[in-house]
Amino acid sequence: MIIFSLLKDRFKGMPWGIIVTCYAIIGIGLYNLYSATNASYNPSRFYDQIIFVLIGTIAAIFWGVFLDLKNLERLSLIGYILVCIMLFAVDIFGRSAKGAERWLVLGPIRIQPSEFVKFVIILIVARSFNIMKGFSEFSLLSLWRQIFYIGLPFLLILAQPDLGTASLVLLISGLQIATIKVRAKSLLTVLFITVSLSIMAWNFILYDYQKQRVLTFINPMLDPRGSGYHSIQSMIAVGSGGLWGQGFGQGTQARLNFLPERHTDFAFSVWAEEHGFIGCLILIFLFAILIIQIFQIADRARDSFSSLAAVGVGAFFLFHFIINISMVLGVFPVVGVPLSFISYGGTHMVTALSCIGIVVAVERKRHLSTTSF
Question: What domain of life (predicted)?
Answer without folding.
Answer: Bacteria
